Amino acid sequence: MASLTRPVLAIAGATGHLGKHITAAFLSSIFQDKFSEIILLSRNESCLFQPSSSQAGVKLTTRRYNEHNLEEALQGIQILVNTVGPAGHDFKANIVVALPRTDIRVYFPSEFGVDHYGHDFAHLEWHEKKKHYANVQSVVAHMKIFRVFCGVFLEDSIGPWFGLDTKNGKYTSIGSFRTPVSFTSLDDVGRAVASLANMPAEKIPDVVHVGGDSRSIVEIAGIMESTGAGRIDIDCLPYEKYKVGTVTKPS
Q1: Percent of the residues in the chain that have a pLDDT greater than 90, as a whole number
Q2: Is 89 within a domain?
């Protein structure tokens, strides 16, 4: 049985988009000796690591899991970090059902985005995250649940899908282009989660906000121009009008 000072930690979705970065943080020299075993939980056939190996004193294990073997796959774990993405909401619901029959005492649900509790926008992904958190609270009273919000991922956010079309020199701001936005690198999210998981549970805040850098649209345009992107023009759309038109029919 793992000692209290070196718990067994598992990462759900360890081979996913964010999961790979969180896994790398836990296996870095700073954190890898803080846990007696690190278990990588994956539904995919391809894995980052061999099924069982050792790395600088920590046992590293890969476990295949699916909706049929969740309870078995989660045995012997004290800390669970859930990085399963938006395509896995049904799977996360199955995790909730299995949790009461495990030894997990510390749980990080799959948040790691903007704090969607601070506004009234209707959005399926945020709705599912709220539901997941409420379900965990209702079935596992003894478990410590810690939510981490980090704004938007830096690597995924500077692009036309958010109105930042650097290639064509056109940025669109909803409201003032001077309003700062919180961006956090995927690697920094990983390091933040690893740091929190290494703390005594009673000292981890229930809600943690991580902000790698806060920049406005006009500041981002200036950074891009200074590094050779050419001139970038910025259009501003009225915030209230855009909000009404967007949330009337949620996507």
Answers
A1: 74
A2: yes
Q: Domain of 199?
A: 8-153+185-211
Mean pLDDT computed over 140-158: 93
Residue 84 lies in a domain: yes
Q: Which residue has the tokens 């790698």?
A: 212
What CATH number has the domain bearing residue 67? 3.40.50.720
What pLDDT, on a 0 to 100 scale, did the predictor assign at position 49?
Answer: 55
173 lies in some domain: no
Q: pLDDT digits over 20-45, tens only?
A: 999 999 999 899 889 999 999 988 75
Torsions phi, psi for 216 (to 5 deg): -85, 170
Q: How far apart are CA 16 and CA 81, in angstroms?
A: 13
Counting the structural domains of the chain, the total is 1
List pLDDT tens digits, range 43-98.
875 555 554 444 556 789 999 888 889 999 999 999 999 999 888 888 999 999 99
Contact (CB, 8 A) for 211 and 182? yes
